[in-house]
């Protein structure tokens, strides 16, 4: 039975991912060093989620937890070994017609603000490139659309003549958002949209995404390491560890009362000026294990400060109700 990360909405969700698995074959030399019959690593190991229209889902976790691989699979940039991706009930994974549908209705904002923009193209060409690829637009129409898109994200028409190296990080991020909006998508996949930006600029970008969501009726799936920003932008939160969901639910309840130790540790890692909070931090032990050496039992148990004896031998399943789930034998609270 697949493990569903969110409640099933009364209406058909815009996006559904069911029991998604993304695996990569090991090079023959590395497989020999690992030993045994292991030929693959599972970067995403059976993840299910749903996103309603107009909703923002934040996916959090350390580097290597499978967040980016998951949204790349949704976008069709990584192949699913098993599972399905559906848009409003129609399967879009695994078929060329489905990939075209995803390209039409789903846009991605990549992590590196400047590096994701071609250095040889002017901004006006960058933001309208998806339309040129699709065809059917005159040069004049593309020029007018460039101005409209840049103004939509708070940049003037004069930015269209600039090259990426002439932009600040925040301006480059806005250009990336404008490009993502050019195809009038229903869903934005935002990979660390505030990475590398000053705190004040981070707030501007998040406010922009919120405004666009409300104005255009967008749904957003956002990856982030920063749990502080989730309080301001996300309706729901999904926490991943080693390619699996360890906790999910309403953002306010997850952040105020985490049930999985890993979620509490992520919250404790947030910067704070409160000396009392710093002294009371909960810290994970050791380093994140590699995907080649998944721990037995609960995969988080080697790092968990709350572990008990049987955590090393019993593998927990997702438990709870449809609105709030956790993967822990001895949940907090």
Our Rg estimate from Cα atoms comes to 21 Å
The main sheet comes to: 8 strands, mixed
DSSP strand tally: 12
- Tally the helices: 11
H/E element sequence? EHEEHEEHEHHHEHEHEEHHHEE
Approximate strand percentage: 15-25%
- Overall mean pLDDT stands at 88
Overall geometry comes to: globular
Features:
333 residues; single chain; alpha/beta; disordered N terminus; 11 helices
What does this molecule look like?
This protein has 333 residues and is α/β, with parallel strands linked by helices. The chain is built from eleven helices and twelve strands. It has helices at residues 28-34, 67-75, 96-105, 123-134, 139-152, 169-181, 199-216, 227-233, 251-256, 261-268, 275-279, and strands at 15-25, 40-51, 56-60, 82-87, 90-91, 106-109, 187-191, 219-224, 236-241, 244-250, 319-321, 324-326. Strands 6-7-8-3-9-10-12-11 form an eight-stranded mixed beta sheet, with helices on both faces. A four-stranded antiparallel beta sheet has the order 2-1-4-5. Strand 9 and strand 10 form a beta hairpin. Helix 4 runs parallel beside helix 6 (169-181) and helix 6 (169-181) packs parallel to helix 7 (199-216). The chain is globular. The model is unreliable at 1-9 (pLDDT under 50).
């Amino acid at each position: 039975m697949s493990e569903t990360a969110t409640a099933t909405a009364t209406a058909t969700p815009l996006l559904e991912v069911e029991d998604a698995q993304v695996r990569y074959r090991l090079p023959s030399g590395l497989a020999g060093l690992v030993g045994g019959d292991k030929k693959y690593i599972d970067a995403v190991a059976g993840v299910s989620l749903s996103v309603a229209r107009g909703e923002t889902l934040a996916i959090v976790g350390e580097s290597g937890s499978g967040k980016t691989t998951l949204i790349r699979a949704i976008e069709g940039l990584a192949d699913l070994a098993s599972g399905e991706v559906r848009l409003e009930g129609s399967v879009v994974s695994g078929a060329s017609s489905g990939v075209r549908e995803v390209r039409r209705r789903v846009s991605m904002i990549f992590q590196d603000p400047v590096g994701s923009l071609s250095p040889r193209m002017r901004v006006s060409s960058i933001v309208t490139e998806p339309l040129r690829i699709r065809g059917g637009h005159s040069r004049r129409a593309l020029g007018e659309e460039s101005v409209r898109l840049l103004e939509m994200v708070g940049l003037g028409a004069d930015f269209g003549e600039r090259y990426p190296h002439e932009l600040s990080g925040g301006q480059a991020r806005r250009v990336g958002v404008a490009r993502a909006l050019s195809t009038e998508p229903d869903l934005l996949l935002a990979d660390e949209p505030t990475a590398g930006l000053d705190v004040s600029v981070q707030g501007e970008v998040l406010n922009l995404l919120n405004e666009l969501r409300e104005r255009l009726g967008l749904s957003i799936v956002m990856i982030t390491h920063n749990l502080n920003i989730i309080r301001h932008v996300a309706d729901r939160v999904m926490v991943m560890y080693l390619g699996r969901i360890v906790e999910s639910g309403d953002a306010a309840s997850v952040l105020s009362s985490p049930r999985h130790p890993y979620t509490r540790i992520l919250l404790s890692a947030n910067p704070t000026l409160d000396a009392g909070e710093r002294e009371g931090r909960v810290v994970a032990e050791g380093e994140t294990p590699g995907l080649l050496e998944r721990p037995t039992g609960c995969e988080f148990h080697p790092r968990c400060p709350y572990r008990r004896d049987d955590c090393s031998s019993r593998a927990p399943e997702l438990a709870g109700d449809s609105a709030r789930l956790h993967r822990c034998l001895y949940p907090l609270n």
